[in-house]
Design goal:
The protein has 226 residues and is α+β, with helices and mostly antiparallel strands. The chain has two domains: 114 residues, Arc Repressor Mutant, subunit A (Orthogonal Bundle), CATH 1.10.10.10; 102 residues. The strands form two sheets. The chain has a four-stranded mixed sheet with strand order 6-5-4-7. A three-stranded antiparallel sheet has the order 1-3-2. α3 packs across α6. The longest helix is centred in the N-terminal third of the chain and has 29 residues. The N and C termini lie far apart (57 Å).
Length: 226
């Protein structure tokens, strides 16, 4: 009986953590924060906390509230909050005799972590797949409403596709709820504007909160030092 319960718990944990494993390996290889990242992703409770805080960066939570939201034991929650606070990812303050925790948006890799969890939650996968089928999409970048921030453009598409079809798709999309601001430019125009250091496309590419959902221009982008 104990073995069956342990196996079931392990399978549930693996299922919950699986979306983050590939992204975790990506960051370990490419960043110099390897010890920090290993500390971040070593427990299921910690991943749940990261998911909640990173996707709601302006919210404050107290311990018992977190135990209810995440369905975890209070001792486990308290331990992981302390761990995240030690590395500087969380801050705390006492108000009305309760200790509240909030994410530190000045943390060195806050934007990268937030971007990682947004991707792992797969909130926009269906939309990306639909857009990819509408025409020749060389590059697709999500920003603005898709990552919870204000931006001049929420969706940048490099390639050729029917504008009216895209508008129809976006009007029926479940997320985001607000009107999506998009821009469609040709590959030739995009590369030219990159070479000229055009502010708009340069910002969309280099913004750490941008999600590059489709990228068939890797070789071209590597030739240009952003």
């Amino acid at each position: 009986m104990y073995r069956e319960e342990a196996t079931q718990q392990k399978n549930e944990t693996t299922k919950y953590e699986r979306p983050f494993k590939k992204l975790f390996r990506y960051f370990v290889v490419r960043l110099t924060f390897t010890p920090m990242l290993k500390a971040l992703f070593s427990s299921n409770t910690r991943i749940k906390l990261l998911n909640l805080f990173l996707l709601h960066p302006d919210e404050e939570y107290f311990i018992r509230e977190l135990t209810r939201k995440l369905d975890e034991q209070i001792n486990s929650i308290r331990r992981e909050l302390d761990n995240l606070k030690k590395i500087g990812l969380l801050r705390s303050k006492v108000r009305n005799r309760k200790k509240y925790y909030i994410i530190n948006q000045d943390f060195s890799i806050f934007n990268e972590l937030k971007n990682m969890f947004l991707k792992a939650n797969n909130t926009d996968d269906h939309l990306v797949r639909q857009i990819s089928k509408m025409g020749n999409v060389e590059l697709l970048i999500l920003n603005g409403a898709f990552v919870g921030k204000d931006a001049s453009v929420d969706l940048l598409i490099v390639g050729e596709l029917d504008k009216s079809q895209l508008q129809n798709l976006l009007s029926h999309a479940s997320k985001p709820k607000e009107d999506v601001k998009f821009a469609i430019i040709t590959k030739k125009d995009f590369l030219y504007r990159l070479e000229c250091k055009d502010k708009f496309v340069h910002t969309m590419i280099t913004d750490t909160s941008s999600i590059i959902a489709i990228n068939k221009l890797k070789k071209e982008l590597e030739k240009i030092h952003l």
